[in-house]
Specification:
- The structure holds two protein chains of two kinds.
- In chain A, helix 1 (10-20) crosses helix 2 and helix 1 runs parallel beside helix 6 (141-156).
- Chain A folds into two domains: 4-198 and 238-257, Thiamin diphosphate (ThDP)-binding fold, Pyr/PP domains (Rossmann fold, 3-Layer(aba) Sandwich), CATH 3.40.50.970; 266-399, Rossmann fold.
- Chain A is α/β, with parallel strands linked by helices.
- Helices cover 39% and strands 21% of the residues of chain A.
- Chain A contains twelve helices and 18 strands.
- Chain A has a seven-stranded mixed β-sheet, with helices on both faces.
- The N and C termini of chain A lie far apart (52 Å).
- Chain B is α/β, with parallel strands linked by helices.
- Chain B has a single domain (2-316), classed as Rossmann fold (3-Layer(aba) Sandwich).
- Chain B is 37% helix and 13% strand.
- Chain B is built from 13 helices and ten strands.
- Chain B has helices at 9-14, 31-39, 54-59, 79-96, 112-116, 119-127, 178-183, 198-210, 224-227, 234-243, 262-269, 278-281, 296-316; strands at residues 46-50, 60-61, 64-65, 71-73, 104-109, 133-138, 189-193, 215-220, 250-253, 257-260.
- In chain B, strand 9 and strand 10 form a beta hairpin.
- The longest helix of chain B has 21 residues, at 296-316.
- Classes of the chains: A alpha/beta, B alpha/beta.
- At the A-B interface, helix 3, helix 4 and strand 11 of A face strand 1, strand 2, strand 3, strand 4 and helix 4 of B.
Chain lengths: 404, 321
Amino acid sequence: MNQKVIGLSGDEAVAYAVKQCNVDVVAAYPITPQTIIVERIADYVNDGEVDLEYIPVESEHSAMSACIGAAAAGARAFTATAANGLALMHEVVYIASSLRLPIVMAIVNRALSGPICIHCDHSDTMAERDSSWIQLYVEDAQEAYDTVIQAFRIAEDPSVLLPVMVNLDGFIVSHTLQDVSVLPDEVVSEFVGKRQVASIDVAGKTVPMMLHPDNPLTFGPLDLFDYYFEHKRQQEEAIKAARDVIKRVNEEYYKISGRRYGDGMVDSYRMDDADIAVVGLGSTMGTVKEVVDEERSRGLKVGAIRIRSFRPFPVDQLLEELSRVKVVGVLDRSGAYGAPGAPVYNEIRSLLYDLDKRPAVLGYIYGIGGRDMPPELVKSVIRDLENALEKPPETKVEFIGVRE
Amino acid sequence: MSGEWSPTLKELAKKPELLASGHRLCAGCAAGTIIRAILKAAWKPIVAVNATGCLEVATTIYPYTSWRIPWIHNAFENAAATAAGIARARDKLLRDGRLDKDYHVIAFAGDGGTYDIGIQALSGALERREKILYVLYDNEAYMNTGIQRSGGTPMAAWTTTSPAGRKIPGKIEWKKPIARIVAAHDVPYVATATPWQWRDLVVKARKALEADGPAFLHVLSPCPRGWRFDTNLSIEMARLAVQTCFFPLYEIVDGEKYVITGYSRSIAMNPKLKKPVVEYLKPQGRFRHLFKPENARLLEEIQRRVDYEWERLLKLAGYRS
């Protein structure tokens, strides 16, 4: 495949992918805090490089609201936000998924106020983890580009019909320049096609599930205790179905690009004979992989598992991989104040409960508000896990890299 | 074509009813009458957006709907943004040849969804000149949730959050001048209307749909439950609102050209037709406390304000120099 390598930040890589994905409507609010994703898309629109409706709305709430309207009307819709912008959107994030609209949204992961902070952590998207949006976390700008393209295929798959968040770490991925291999426009265009609206059976007639004058469908009616529960139940089936779709799209994308990310759900690194696994999300896992190589060279059997799909959660993959290890260290870049641990830790510990022989699970909360996670800090975690091989603690959730 | 369009009631009755009967709007609620009239003004298919509120909950409850047109409810504050998204999707799909029918996009919202929580999204859509019609059906409080005051509630009115108390007799603020606020965005068409003068209403709806850019209809929607009057008097209340100049009928074209219409025009030509405001306030339980001796000053204040606003409108419409 004839791919061009260009220098792009994570934000620019997202915008480049959006330009290629036959997107019909972009609702754009650039601030709270600002990312350049929508600025680059505006450049493409105003330079005539892409034909899409660009709606410069007055808030993130309206950005998602306009995407909901556009997607319900049959368009492929995209928006991007971060931190407080996502929090402001919260109400309509849930409405987008409950209306089963395949919107794609890039999130530059940044700390929620207060105090006001613009740097990386995952508190913004963890606050949306139960919204029945698919959440894919990427490691670098290349994966951000690739994942946006995949996201439209996943969201619009008739067995899924749920919106997708593509999450990239604020500044670390969003604002740093990387060599990114980009596919030719026509290859991406063919891979994603134009938005094909899924069908629905209404009174014995199959009609497109969209606002269209020929089919007077009612979207978003009042829905009380006699049906609401069934509708929420269906969302669980849809997001479960997304597991296979994410894996399939990962493989299909590999065929056109030569790039894939594990099985699409998890990206495992040197896990075959590992005694120790370090599990986490996002760009930090790149650092972890480097440290794993160093530790391996001195004989420690350690591997890394990057969870790419946090929602749906990669239950089977993690059970299979983690049942073979003795100690699991879980890295969380957000807190869950008052809970036993942080979000990723809580999921993994719960998941492993059913195993006959459970590994020890240790939790580490790091990098809040953009605090750096240098290799030395990863090494100290691995030292801790190595000690636990001998004498596992009962429970352990620790804040690391913070002044106590 | 609009200038000439003046349908008879018979012609309108022959047009299909796009809001089916059997909905659960209260007896005497004017909203259904208003919506049906506006839908009859369209000459293209319609896609409707509905903010959370009386109209939304009373016309849908899964698995039933009264809407014979495509309809979407998103949330309370975002009808304008949702409508904008639909209008832009329509334009793109038409341009691509992926949609075979053009349609109007009409947003319906109450006073809470417009004056208060929805004004930001509305202002944004107006500024961007989205090709939508935004209809405010104004029953002057959050009626769906039990009569709480909004920015559209008249001064001195009783509501459950502006009770007629011993110390504070009802709402203490004046109603927000929403038509002027919208018109200040220099949009092509803004009009006020009531379900009393139905031809005035449908003609304005037609003009609004013809406007090149956002259009706004502010329609007074008398509410027997919230205003405390008998269910057979809704149209009567709308009539008195106009005849007392409490709610005058007018258009604002391109943000500056004021045209007084309907019975309000008759009053402008013949001031003797203007009735005292107490004739409008008296039959409504929400103003009952104003007729206690200690609140007489409020009645005077309201009359002064109505007179002042009416004089201002006459000036803006060129009846006064």
